[in-house]
Amino acid sequence: MAEVRNVNKGVKLTTTSATNLYAAPNHVRSRVGTMAFINTGGSDSTFTLDWVDKADSSSTSSTQVYKIFKDKSVKAGKSVILDLNLVLEKQDILRATASAANVFEVSLSIEEKSIQQ
Asked: Total structural domains in the chain?
């Protein structure tokens, strides 16, 4: 029987480089439900959210990056709640890039379900 585990994760975007928010473990199918991006800064900022699909992790040529949001604006002191319902398979990555460092705090709610080999 598959084991199901609920995970809550928080990440601060401390740079303007792509930051991994979550990487799906091997032998797990993960469903990313709700995400919150909170702008804790004093001015409006944007973020980009990507899904890195590692369909065949044995070959880097099979890795594809898909944009979920690009340059999504969030006013200073406000938040954006996303209901993704996105399924990630082994080694898939959800990552975000902020337009300014040390502005965004991100929280994720994830359901991990073990899968048979």
From this structure: 1
